[in-house]
Amino acid sequence: MTEDEKPSPLERFGIAMARMLETWFPDAFVFALIAVLVALAASLAAGGELVALVRSYGKGFWSLIPFTMQMSLLIIGGYVLATTPAIAKVIDGLASVRLSSRSAVAYIAFISMTSSLLSYGFSLIFTGLLAREMLRRYGHIDYRAAGAAAYLGLGSIWALGLSSSAALLMNTAASLPPALADISGVIPLSRTLFTWQNGVTILVIAAVSLVVAYVSAPTGARVRTLQLEKRAEKAPETSLVTGKLEWLETTPALTIPIVALGAWYLVDVLATQGIQQALDLNTYNFAILMLGLALHWTPRSLIKAVNAAVPSVGGVILQFPFYGGVFGLITGSPLTHKLAAAFVAASTTNSYPVLVAIYSALLGLFIPSGGSKWIIEAPYVLQAAKDLGVDQGWVVQIYNAAEALPNLVNPFWMLPILGLLAVKARELVGYAVLQLVFIAPVVLTLMWLLAKTF
Fold this sequence. Notes:
By secondary structure, this protein is mainly α. The chain has one domain (9-227, 239-451). It is built from 22 helices and no strands. The model is unreliable at 228-242 (pLDDT under 50).
């Protein structure tokens, strides 16, 4: 029997889901605007005064600017690293493996999830480029399933890896808002990312995701291919200098000492602080940029990569201030304390992990950012955990596992892949939602069971 003869029930379901969602889908910015209105209504219902809330909204609007810069650089750094000549050779080698239509989609999904544990910014670009290259070479791979597979790391396990915004934030004393520091203090990575429970969660979610990606991928005549235009994607060049010093752009004369200085700094930080204390967002971004500079080798190559990456962070720059406004609304009203009290009243030590996971996933539909959403959510989530005696480190991981799920619905982080494949979100989101149907109950079950081991 060939794979074209009889589609599996899951394949038929995936095709039907993709067709349905291709007919409509809103822009990610719509979710951010809705979040502002919902937060305002909830804060008023909790007893906040309108004038005071308006002021809190305005003050909070710019409160995430440093974090916005960190997130932007995380994406840009990932793009810079993924487009280096050395990584391009890796992509060429990975894409040269000829597989069946189903195996190719599962293969892309595996690469996406694995690379997302290192850096979600790198994973988006690296796997997007891999998917594009495989679609260009082979005409038997469904571009909708392949594009969704390239995005799968962001919708499954990325937040359980080294670029987890929430875990890194809680591990960084200087980044903790005072109110949050009073509730939990610094939570080291040994209580979040570097636990065996987190490792089990990664393996189980990844296994389920791979099976779904493989079985649901269209085969044979049901495959929709993508005819990629042969276009030279040239980023606008920006010269550092002109005239006789222009040679500095095309040689490693400046790269070598700068990278050496950066490497020295990183070694010193790791030696004096240890990996758990040193691995915060600033250090992580610094390391990625230094590695990108080293692999690009010349300033001109790095500049071209950064210029090409900048459009990918437009959504971050536009939406994060509105998330800051939501943070201002929630923290500027009695809502935070009432939500914490509601969590405690509605929960027991046994049920709290599931309740937090569901809440985090639902909130993520409107705020598709692991870091900024955690700042909004953390005060009352960690306070309730403290009151109920639930391990706060595991609550961070519950949040990490659950907050990735709405990324499969909200296309905000899909933007870089959409640009690489020249497609619209509604073309890929059907297969992303299909993953959500299977991953969500697995996440809820794992969070509940593993909480009992603390």
